[in-house]
Amino acid sequence: MDMDCGLEHKFCRGADDLVVTDGTVIEGYASLFDNRDRGGDIVAKGAYAASLKRLAQEGRGVKMLWQHDPGQPIGVWDEVREDARGLYVKGRLLDGVARAREAAALIAAGAIDGLSIGYRTVRAAKNDRGRRLLQELELWEVSLVTFPMLPSARVGAKGDTLDGHDLRDLAAVFEGARRELAQS
């Protein structure tokens, strides 16, 4: 049985977009509006609104996965919302999950720094340049990934803003978390 149900993925990576606080809390942008990704697609403002509303009405949330693997949830997205810039996410890596601890270590080392959305296209059109403009998406999950498609969302450290951060600070945060976990 095919479990993806026509699910598509859009990867997002950028040094200014994903912040890590206290070793487990992460926040940033999983998708940016009006930016062409490496596949040529552009997500329109408001593309997630109906999906987020429906999820809220049904009491469900967007899943946090490792590399889009539905068998590897690594945390919980506590907040997922659209703003003028894109799809903002804030959540927690679960320190009781081995893969989440590994993700923290990989982020600290700079080996992982991308976000990717898993979605189904509900409505799309071609823009004047022949690019696919994604107008409505059914959002399923946001994953931490190795190779993002949109070079615009990453991981940062405590005290950083979403407008800029230093990956060395991020590495220090995760190194401290790694040491604490090793002592546990």
UniProtKB/TrEMBL annotation:
Alphabetical list of Pfam families matching this protein: Peptidase_S78
Organism: Roseovarius gahaiensis
Swiss-Prot/TrEMBL keywords: Hydrolase, Protease, Viral release from host cell
Alphabetized GO MF terms: peptidase activity
One record GO biological process: proteolysis
UniProt xrefs under InterPro entries: Peptidase_S78_dom (IPR054613), Prohead_protease (IPR006433)
The name this protein goes by in its record: HK97 family phage prohead protease
Domain Prohead serine protease, residue spans: 21-160
